[in-house]
Amino acid sequence: MIEFEERSQAFLSWLSTSSVSLNSKISLADLRSQHAGRGVVATSDIIEDEILFTIPREVILIAENSDLSAKLPQVLEELDSWTALILVMMYEHLKGSASPWKPYFDVLPLTFDTLMFWTQEELEELQASAVRNKIGRDSADKTFRETILPIFHSNGAILFLNGNFISDEELLSLAHRMASTIMAYAFDIEKKDGDKEFDEEGYTSDEDDEVLPKGMVPLADMLNADADRNNARLFYQEDALVMKAIKPIAAGEEIFNDYGPLPRSDLLRRYGYVTSNYAKFDVVEVSHEILIDTVAQNGAISREEIDSRLEYLDGEGIIDTGYDICRPVPGEPIQEIFSPELLTVIAALLMPTADFEQMKERGKLPKIGSISSKVASLLSKLVRNRAMQYATTFEDDEVALSSLLASHTQNNLSRHSYRMQMALEVRLGEKSALREAEQILQRLEATAIESEKDHKRNPRFHTDDGSSKKRKVG
């Protein structure tokens, strides 16, 4: 506790000597009891648009601000911004007290609860969540072995400034730690206006807009995030980055940034925590394979015909490795729950052969308007098949989570138990999304069946302008 506080105070002193402007109405708080590390809280009432702190651009930990950019300019130029920042952070960390960012490194975490650091046993608690396929530990390891290690081998005299050489395995461990720090804490750093290239009409190039370097912004990265309680935002100026209040903040309230609409599985993967405030963004990914298996089980179309139609759809850029099912929001249309690509593929695969061939000849795709009973029925089967991929039911997980929380308090949860809790919350969120989607589909299917019956009783044809007219019968 004493060391934690001492490091916090040393960091604040460093900010002061680095020309960082701090509002006297905020303070750095110890939030470890909430599994949140450090956070920033208001000590007095803050009004909207009030500046909380200002960080000069030269204080940002970014490749161009490190003296390594002068020592190994060509090496850094050949790396992407992500890998370049990893290398710079490893270099500055190994410099120890010689690094101008030493007090900053001292308050950054040494351990993480991001999925990169979970054991295989812990990862299995996520069951069938697609996030398990997005961790990328092996690919990161390969990149570090093929890129970072050779740079250290070739430039040891520069990178090991104090002659404190460490083994390749220690370097790999440090590279993973710095990469996880960047994933959890780094910002996209917008260029100074003077560094941007403008065309004759005053617009920046696509490259300027899309390729933004990553940078570590001291203090700004210590704001925790909350989708509902977001009350601050980082603004980019020519010579500094400015954090402002975007609404009034009362004394005693924590100051929150926001990560945007991230599902809790991605919160866990990137930042190492979950919160119920992001439950509304939960998403379930359905693999292309289970979609095709479900269509084949339906029996309305042969495997050969499925493959033939998929070839056409792939040429039209519709086929993907996976499709999203979003957590339903009351009142929103079905098209907002299921990805448009998924709806398009299903509609195409369920079309009568003659209709599909005619559409194919015209080089078109199905228009997704109202959902037919056949499409709703198939989607229901797909949702059920996806739910069956999880080893436990929604009810099982509710009991397990209640039992875990009843046997521990948040303050005495072990790291393993804390990870088990987060895994349960992620898979409960995904199963809940599937349950709610299926309930909506069942109602939609029933409504569509009645509508189709009514259509048969009162035949209509559609004109080119979209209006409907009664068809003469008999």
From TrEMBL:
**Positions of the region Disordered?**
448-474
Q: Which PROSITE patterns match?
A: SET (PS50280)
One GO MF term: protein-lysine N-methyltransferase activity
Q: Which UniProt keywords apply?
A: Methyltransferase, S-adenosyl-L-methionine, Transferase
Q: Provide the SET domain boundaries.
A: 24-260
GO terms, biological process: methylation
Q: Which Pfam families match?
A: Rubis-subs-bind, SET
Give me the stretches of Basic and acidic residues compositional bias.
450-468
Source superkingdom: Eukaryota
Cited InterPro entries: Rubisco_LSMT_subst-bd (IPR015353), Rubisco_LSMT_subst-bd_sf (IPR036464), SET_dom (IPR001214), SET_dom_sf (IPR046341), SETD3_SETD6_MTase (IPR050600), SETD6_SET (IPR044430)
A cellular component term (GO) from this record? Answer: nucleus
Which named protein is this?
Answer: SET domain-containing protein
